[in-house]
Amino acid sequence: MSDIATACALGRHVNSGSGPSLLPLDIGHTEYLALTDPATAFWALVRKDRLAETLTGGPLLDRYRAHAAEFARELHGLRFELKPSAVYVNPTERCNLDCTYCYIPREMRRAGEHMPTKRLLDALERLKDYFVTVMPAGRKPRVIFHGAEPLMNREALFAAIDAYRDDYIFGVQTNATLLDEEALNFLTERQVSIGLSLDGPLAEITDATRRTWGGKSVHNKVLDTMERLRGYRAWSVIATCTAKNLDQLVPLVELFHARGVPTCMLNAVRCTMPGARTVRPADDVLATHFIAALERSHALYRESGRKLVVANFANILLAILAPTARRLMCDISPCGGGRAFFALAPDGGLFPCSEFIGLPAFEGGNLFSDSVGDILASPAFAKVTGRDVDKFAPCAHCAIRHFCGSPCPAEAHEMNGGMDRIGAFCGFYEEQVRYALRLIADGKANDFLWDGWDEGVETCFQVTLQ
Question: Is the pTM of this model over 0.85?
Answer without folding.
Answer: yes
